[in-house]
Specification:
With 66 residues, this protein is mostly helical. It is built from three helices and no strands. The protein has a domain of 45 residues.
Amino acid sequence: MGNVKSIENAVESLPPMELAEFRRWFAEFDGNAWDRQIDHDASSGKLDQLAAEALADYSAGSARLL
């Protein structure tokens, strides 16, 4: 059985309290992974073009309040 399938089966068999604990842990884990990816993308210049486009839109008056 594949590793992912084993993990799926283990998660499916968790009692409700442990599932809630796992969800909290995974949300934090996933958020940290996302933060690391964004930091990496920003420091490598991967987001520079998007930032330049956003600033150009703002300077041109094309931005709107959210």
